[in-house]
Design goal:
mainly alpha
């Protein structure tokens, strides 16, 4: 069970790294959208 979690964590990190490599623009856009939503919530 512990080993499984370790492997899952590693694959998740690897997937994240490949995503960052392939879609930095998309990632920053997503962050900007999330920031905008946060600001909208704060305004309410």
């Amino acid at each position: 069970m512990y080993y499984e979690a370790y492997v899952n964590k590693r694959t998740a990190m690897k997937r994240e790294r490949s995503l960052k490599r392939s879609g930095k623009a998309y990632h920053s856009l997503k962050l900007r959208i999330l920031d905008g939503l946060g600001e909208g919530e704060a305004l309410d």
